[in-house]
Each structure stands twice: as structure tokens, then as C-alpha cells.
Specification:
about 120 residues, elongated, alpha+beta, 3 helices, Molybdopterin biosynthesis moea protein, domain 2
Length: about 120
């Protein structure tokens, strides 16, 4: 098990790969070994009471930095909409959340360009 780590669910970062099949208390497979741990999957596992998972140690060659963090944007967009909808009217939420989302994507693209240069 030298190529795997057991991590607390709160220590998981998106992009890590599951190091072993994950089962619920009834023995039903929740996730298969090798599945990428996304933000949304980690949130689901946390909500399901999972405390620890085994992850594979990644090699630099295994990490694909050319793929955009689409899952990150979807989760970010959801949180922005949810937070703003608690304090504002619908049309205001749409306008402000649109601006915040554009800024977030612009910053991500700028940092991606910095990695490529």
C-alpha cells in the first residue's frame, strides 16, 4: 500500500484518484478505484458520512493540467447563486452573480496562461 494514502475526507483535494473501491454500510459500491475525486463527489461523500478515503499517489505524468476545472466552476457558480439568493431579489442575483462568475473565470484563465508561459 506504499502507492496509496488514507486521507480524512476534509483533506481531499479535487483531482486525486480513489485508491480503492468505496462501499457503503450495506456493501454497495459507491465509487470505484481510480475514479477522480471532484469537489461535488467529495461533498456527496462527506454528506453520506464518509470520514476517510484511500487515494492513489499521483505521478506528475498522471496529472492532466490541460483540462479546465469545469467542476470547480460549476460548484463555484452554485455557491454564488445560493449565497446571493438569500439576500437579494432574483434579477439582482442574476446580474451580480454573472459578474462574479466572469471575474472568476477570467482569473482562472489568467493563471492558466501563466502556467503555460
Amino acid at each position: 500500500m506504499a502507492d496509496k494514502w488514507e486521507l480524512a475526507i476534509d483533506d481531499i483535494t479535487p483531482g486525486l484518484l480513489l485508491g480503492a473501491d468505496l462501499f457503503d454500510e450495506f456493501g454497495i459500491v459507491l465509487c470505484r478505484e481510480g475514479e477522480p475525486l471532484t469537489n461535488s463527489l467529495v461533498m456527496e461523500l462527506r454528506q453520506g458520512g464518509i470520514k476517510k478515503v484511500t487515494v492513489k499517489k499521483a505521478k506528475m505524468a498522471d496529472i492532466d493540467i490541460t483540462q479546465p476545472a469545469i467542476d470547480h466552476f460549476a460548484e463555484f457558480d452554485h455557491h454564488v447563486d445560493k449565497c446571493l439568493s438569500m439576500v437579494m431579489h432574483h434579477d439582482e442575483v442574476q446580474q451580480i452573480s454573472g459578474i462574479i462568475k466572469k471575474v472568476n473565470r477570467s482569473r482562472a484563465q489568467s493563471s492558466d496562461m501563466g502556467l503555460k508561459n
